[in-house]
Amino acid sequence: MLVIEEKYRPVAELLLPSGTCPRCVLRFCCVGSHAPYQLPYKELADELWKFLASDGDISPPSKKVRLEDSEECKDKAQIPRDVEAPQTCNLCLGILQHLCSPEFVQKILQRIRSAGYEFQDFVFSVSLPAQLLVREHSAWLQAQQEMRKQDHLLQKADIIQLKEAYKWIIHPMISEKLGVQAVSKSLFEVGVVFCHQDTDEDCHFLATVCKDCFKPAKNKQSVFTRMAVVKALDKIKDNDFCIRFPWPPSSPKTACQLVDIQCNHASVFVAGRYNKYSRTLPQTPWVIDGERKMESSVEELITEQLMAVFKVDSFNFSSSGREDVDVRTLGRGRPFAIELVNPHRVQFTKQDMKDLQEEINNSDKIKVRDLQIVSREAVAYMKEGEEEKTKCYSALIWTEKPIGKEDIEFLNDIKELKIIQKTPLRVLHRRPLASRSRIIHTMKAEYVDEHHFRLYLKTQAGTYIKEFAHGDFGRTVPNISSLLKTTADILELDVESVDVDWPPALED
Ligand SMILES: [Zn+2]
């Protein structure tokens, strides 16, 4: 039995004979339970016509045709579960007719299976051509009028959206076959994209009424986006609309075409800490004018394995600061996080991650520890308050004038030294010119010989250490040169620690 409320009878009487499919009629009659939509198409059509006939005073010309259709079908030995509708619906353009059949779902399933994703549930999305909105609007205005005659209201929001109804039909079929649930917040998304070229021009009249709504935008093929059409429909007066888009909308010969079935898995984030032992290894690929300057990079050495194992499309590498190509990173290493985009494999145990870490650590240039899967929010924590964090360095310094014990003691006595740094000359090509202050929290100098000493620094994150040593032509003040009143330069630099307590340390 159908569950259409009696007050919606005029809406059904208006739509069904006009060339609207039974499922769309249910939508406009605000039927909110899923089951009627899932009925086999023919069964639902028969039920609806019975419902209309029960009132006795309707005999639209097309009704006769429909009844003949159904009788013809009943004569056949077997009625297929989803008989093709006699004509394409003038509202959904076949979406709720031909494009939700078990055969169509089979296509979706094939695509999902061949894509080879790991997932525990799924979210389903539908992309519909914009002209459906115009047709929907047209039907709503007519239905609203019918309802008003009996002092009933019909808000646009009361109507069941096409996407909703479509999902009510499709979800159970996919769920059943895959054995997983449809969940709105699933990380695995299956999307179907439809178009309908024959009716593409349905929207065009809107541009003459509401020019402002349709402005060309980058990376949009057409100005008639769903968003723009919604905006224009909101603005256009009912009368104008009805004149320019007369009721009923045309019944096209063919249904919507499937453009694509897309599968995508939300990014997975992997974090850890790395040591870098080479003075000829940049953190990220070093490419100038398309030409590679260094053979590899920290980023590549870490992500190569991850990319292959998680089977991803691409990645984004980020870290808590970075070191120059000739600087080593020692101690417990530098925190990093990698966003793995569209991973096909996502289920990894702690042991899997440990094995993966060991494989990465086959390199003698870098070592990784605490490799783990983290949340997107946790990655933000790494970047949070980065400026306030401290970093420890060890540097080998050369001085022009011979140094003595008193120079070493002088440096050791300095605490919380405030310095001003203009953007260093060597990074001016990629960073804006700015002047900023940084704090050198502590300094400890160790005499090596009369022209060399080792300097241990604890500084605010973001301090340019090389410039603090040589002064960068007076762009960093004060600096080791100016403090010792001689020319000084930095020969070697190591990062000894990055004081960010993330990601959490793992047991070895
Ligand atoms: Zn329809």
From TrEMBL:
Chemical reaction(s) catalysed: uridine(54) in tRNA = pseudouridine(54) in tRNA; uridine(55) in tRNA = pseudouridine(55) in tRNA
Highest taxon above the source species: Eukaryota
Localization terms from the record: Cytoplasm; Mitochondrion; Nucleus
Enzyme class per UniProt: isomerase
Biological processes annotated in GO: tRNA pseudouridine synthesis
Keyword Transferase: no
Location, primary (coarse class): cytoplasm
Documented EC number(s): 5.4.99.25
Aminoacyl-tRNA synthetase among keywords: no
A Pfam family assignment: Pus10_N_euk
GO cellular component: mitochondrion; nucleus
Keywords per UniProt: Coiled coil, Cytoplasm, Isomerase, Metal-binding, Mitochondrion, Nucleus, tRNA processing, Zinc
The Pus10-like C-terminal domain, residue ranges: 269-499
Residue span(s) of domain Pus10 N-terminal eukaryotes: 89-263
GO molecular function, one term: metal ion binding
Stored InterPro entries: PsdUridine_synth_cat_dom_sf, Pus10-like, Pus10-like_C, Pus10_N_euk
Coiled coil region boundaries: none
NCBIfam families: pseudo_Pus10arc
Family: Belongs to the pseudouridine synthase Pus10 family.
Name this protein carries in UniProt: tRNA pseudouridine synthase Pus10
Organism: Eleutherodactylus coqui (Puerto Rican coqui)
Lineage start: Eukaryota, Metazoa, Chordata, Craniata, Vertebrata
